Amino acid sequence: MNLLTKFSVGQYVYGNRSWLRIIDSRLKIIIVMIFLITPIWAGPIWRLSLVVCLLLITFLSLLPFRIWWRSLFFLSCLSLLIGCISIFASSDILSLDGYLRNPNELQVVLENYKKWNILQIPSQSIWFINFGPYNLSRKALELGIKTSTLIFTVIQSVNLMLLTTLQEDIVWGLSWFLDPLRKIGLPISKWLFQLLIALRFIPLVQEEFQNIITSVSVRSINFRNLGLKKSFNVLLILVERFFQNIFLRIDQGAESLLSKKKINIKTNRFKTFYPSTSLNVIVNTLSICFICIAIFLRKLYGAL
Fold it and tell me: CA-CA distance, 170 to 198, in Å (whole number)?
């Protein structure tokens, strides 16, 4: 299985079928920052609305279905799994029978307690195993929604930008925002050059991971016959080899850069010039409207 073609995560896919490609890189960065920053101190309604918005953008982006459906499926499963773990780990395991005072004296408190819990499972015993009691509170449900939606919005929003934007365009957009910091002497060009190298390093990591999987499949290792301990040792060896190959790639890249006496970094030449058509103007105008509407709605409905 070729991971580079089946799981296009964090790498640019060439083509011209999506309207996301013609949005200005500076507007894309602002939109991604909205998805990254606005969930902070936001309620579950706003977080769920961001997830729905990302799903609509993904389905209506006109990107080929084979590019994003696998990554979207696994990301959704991962988010739901972490959300469920957060719900069950933070739920109240105490029952109402644990109060030492007379329930008649605490009738108001008990009524509020029942309203606060969404799901209550009494204690049950199956043979010699006791289950429960288990109470699912609203606080636990909100925590599960926050964790799952945060993971989904962070990964999916960044992935959509990387799928439809060249690394050079991203670096140029960031340099446009960080240009005032050059006046105080900060090495913005060097930082952006390091970011460009990191973005181009993502496919290399995926390639090394694919090579490890291919080497295991070619050798036809039978983990059932090895047992748990030996299988774990083989897994550690594979992880060690994976990081050794990555560090070797890093060392080779560093040596190639050090071999050059002087590196002139000009972020202005990273700008990709698109033809100024009516479609580009309309799409970028709608993107600006989306940014304004998102900020306005966050102020109205995004509070806790």
Answer: 12
Answer yes or no: is pLDDT of 110 > 50.
Answer: no
CA distance 103 to 99: 8
Q: What is the pLDDT of residues 222-259, one digit of tens each?
A: 777 877 888 888 888 888 888 888 888 888 877 877 77
Is the distance from CB of 125 to CB of 26 less than 8 angstroms?
no
Where residue 204 falls among pLDDT bands split at 50, 70, 90?
confident
Hey, how many other C-beta atoms are within 10 angstroms of the C-beta on 195? 15
CA 289 from centre of chain: 25
For residue 7, what are the contacts with CB-CB under 8 A and spacing of at least 6?
Answer: 70, 71, 206
What pTM value is reported for the model?
0.77
Closest CA to 67 of 180, 178, 160: 160
